[in-house]
Design goal:
eight-stranded parallel β-sheet; about 10% strand
Length: about 350
Amino acid sequence: MKGEREQDLNRNNEKRPFKYLAGDRTIGVEMSQAASVASAAAEFIAEGERSSRTEPLNRAGFRRPGGRPAFLVLRDGREERPVPREEDGGLPAGPCLIRSGEWLLAPEVSELYAGWLFSEDKAQEERMLQRIYYRLRASAAALLESADGVWAAVMPPFMPELDDQPARLAALQDAQLDALFAAVAERQRLGGDCRLDLLAPYPASAAEFAAQREFIEGVAEQTLGHAYAAACRIGAMISPDVERAAAGEIARIADFLVLDGAAGEAAPEEAAAGFARAAEEVLAAVRGVKPAAALLAAGAPAAYALADLYRIGLSGIFCSAGQRTEALLRAACLTWMARQDHADTAAGGRL
């Protein structure tokens, strides 16, 4: 649906899709809440100095700081205790990642979903999907009313049990997107505002992403009109095993990319090294096609691999609430170390 004209309108935003200065303030606030920050920082800096002598990845492509954007540490999933939003506050540094498939696991929805999933009666199936829609709409409204809903990146449901039932998966995604956009419309009607980005789930090719994007835009246009659909930022959630050439082609037409390490079966700390290597390869393919592309990482392995992802040049990571304070601390340490390196290099050049 969106042609070259709409792509041109978004081109100016591709270089800086997220705000960065607010992220620095967020790091300062959350670091102040961490215990023994000084000793933890010293330990991490020492660890970084030791690891720099035995780098596990090819560092030739790393972007040394000197004006590089801040490394974003963003939320993956809503807070356990949702905080009401402050209507007069500005946008956060970046979006909160919402995997809307998790809404189907809530106690009030899971039984309905199981009934719909195994229903063999078409009329009953439609009635149960309608009831699921109202539950999803309530979840979407709760999200938009919370602080996490000020700026959210929402991925439609991607349910493994529906892999061999594409028509049912499409019906479920349609219901979820319709519920989400209806909640946005209601919030706009009441004078509220929010920023909503969408993530196409795990496309394996540019053609697959284009089809998913058209589907999302179609639902948005039906609910909120053409102007909203044309302005909606749509990215792609991709897996670490995506074909590298395909990742580059997806990046060409996606507004941003998220590399997801959450699906792996290995323990996060064991998967971190392999995830970092995959991220390096994907980033090279993506930036080879679109140098200003925003590529973030998500999932527990991303937090464990933060130092490598920072040095590679990723835009940031999404991590759970339990990992976020440590990740913010590590990102702040890396930023400080990089600034020191840059200052030393600049001073050496003047001697």
